[in-house]
Predict the structure.
Amino acid sequence: MGYCKTENHTKIKERLLHCEGFKEKVEATSRIFSLLGDETRMKIVLSLMEGELCVFHICEIVEGKQSAVSQHLRKLKDAKIVKSQKVGNQVLYSIADDHIYTIVKTALRHKDC
Amino acid sequence: MGYCKTENHTKIKERLLHCEGFKEKVEATSRIFSLLGDETRMKIVLSLMEGELCVFHICEIVEGKQSAVSQHLRKLKDAKIVKSQKVGNQVLYSIADDHIYTIVKTALRHKDC
DNA sequence: CCCGTGTATTAGTGTTTTCTAATATAGATA
DNA sequence: TATCTATATTAGAAAACACTAATACACGGG
């Protein structure tokens, strides 16, 4: 394998391999997508797009064990996809950033959605 | 666990649980995101966003085995994220849909990217 | 200050996903 | 038609990931 000399392919390849920050771009983007790429987490995010929720209600919506949900919430929070706020006994979660709305809504418009 | 009666949370929960097509929404969206959530596939997609490429060059860019790349391309193609065109001996891949550009570019703008 | 409620963390297990190596197919060229 | 190049497929091993159960921590009310 391996002798394609097509001018244009080679140009693109060279450009990408010398592109400053390509690797970081890939890592950051795929990390966000992989977090949104889990059904339970997607359900959580879509729910929070409707408004702030406590962990108890999130568990009910996603029909998941509290422990599992809590682990998902932590990952989403670490990636700054959601944020949390402590109110008395409970912790209220919400979407952290307007970009998230845009990303998810754009995906919903994709023809296979 | 489980006695939160906050009016607003309950309202959101009820709305979501009765929302026609919520499950399908979740499945479709998370499926696309999970495909874009792999570093190799993200690299492929970002590369194709620069222009059409043959499999040989894609392999070089992502520094992956031909077989692995081929499997990734298949998944991307099944999800209509990329499309392919046979030209003589080789198969040229490109982005299937403008939505993909939008989704990826939006993600790149997210503050952690 | 102790108990109950709500949330987080951890360790281990099971499932999903990706990778590797081998093999198959399809078109081009001799 | 035999062979070479490009790509695809498959089976199995390895790695990544999510789930469960148990436990820990934090706050509020008696």
